[in-house]
Amino acid sequence: MTESAPKKIAGTGPSNSRQVLTFCLGAETYGVDILRVQEIRGLTPVTHLPKSPAHVLGVLNLRGSIVPIVDLRVRFSLERAEFTPLTVIIVLSIMTASGRSEFGLVVDSVSDVVDIGAEDLKETPNLGGKLNSDFIQCLATVADRMLILLDVDALVGKELLPGEPVTLAGAA
């Protein structure tokens, strides 16, 4: 793995702060930019698609849009956990080459919305190339707890980015 330039920490500057929706996976707390959050909904059944990646639970019809649903525990190679009444889907907006798209993340629970100042943001440490931090934007310390801030565009992965539309023509 080659070293890359430090990631730009979006929405930061000398006097900038940003709001982040925090959520839990096990004992860890993660965050995403609140401006990317479309909605938070209770866990609902999804339509499973054959041959989808292991971390894709299926798709959900969200007001006429087909939204892929990602189990974040599987995506992060964490131990599986039973879904509970606190388990939710966070629907996020991403930008792709073909425009804006949505996808959902299944998380253990949603915590709160926090304001994070630029002084609270830290770059992800270099751990000798053993850590796949492509989707980690940065780390933040808020009220003596560490938050892992995610880059939602990188998190989705190429397998979920809209490609050529699938048509029924010639499928017979």
Describe the structure.
The structure is a single chain. 5% of the residues lie in helices and 45% in strands. The protein is globular, with a radius of gyration of 17 Å. The strands form two sheets. A six-stranded mixed β-sheet has the order 8-1-2-11-10-9. A five-stranded mixed β-sheet has the order 3-6-7-5-4. The chain has a single domain, classed as OB fold (Dihydrolipoamide Acetyltransferase, E2P). It has helices spanning 72-75, 152-156, and strands spanning 17-25, 28-33, 37-42, 56-62, 65-71, 88-96, 99-107, 109-117, 121-122, 136-142, 145-150. The longest helix is centred in the C-terminal third of the chain and has 5 residues, at 152-156. Residues 1-14 and 162-172 have low confidence and may be disordered. With 172 residues, the protein is mainly beta. A hairpin with a 2-residue loop joins strand 10 and strand 11.
Index terms:
six-stranded mixed β-sheet, globular, 45% strand, disordered N terminus, mainly beta, 172 residues, five-stranded mixed β-sheet, OB fold (Dihydrolipoamide Acetyltransferase, E2P)
Distance between the termini: 44 Å
Please report the total strand number as a whole number. Answer: 11
- Element-level helix/strand string: EEEEEHEEEEEEH
Specify the structural class: mainly beta
Range of strand content: 35-45%
Shape: globular
